[in-house]
Amino acid sequence: xxxxSLHPRYLDPQGLVALWREALLAQAVLRGETRGYRHHxxxxxxxxxxxxxxxxxxYLKAIHAEAEARGYAFDRHKFRATRxxxxxxxxxxxxxxxxxxxxxxxxxxxxEHYLKWRNAAAPRPHPLFRVRDGEVEPWERxxxxxxxxxxx
Length: 152
Fold this sequence. Notes:
Blueprint: H1 13-30, H2 44-47, H3 52-69, E1 88-91, H4 92-109, H5 111-117, E2 129-132
Parallel strand pairs: 1-2
Helix pairs in contact: 1-3, 4-5
């Protein structure tokens, strides 16, 4: 599961669809509707919020907005609108880590999209996140030692 801290605008079509599906799965986990992925570390930052489902709805709302801007038909009824205003902190090190990870994915999977974004000076975070100084987040697994995800 990858819940990008980066703005969804940087994702290629495959990445945006995958993010939508994974965020919907994360929402189901937070609702207690699935047994899988309950212990996934990327969900911690949502669970740590006073209203985890509202945070996830805001996350999905931004993905949906990007999909609409591209002319995609993501189902708006898959998440509940919320009036909650919140920002989740994310470190600059996490943004840099995800950017490098995304650029490598795009370089291999979608060279045209890679060329469009490779020289972006400072990638924007997803609208739910506020960047603060710091290293890669503790919940991020190092690529070289990434163990299989516990799905229960």
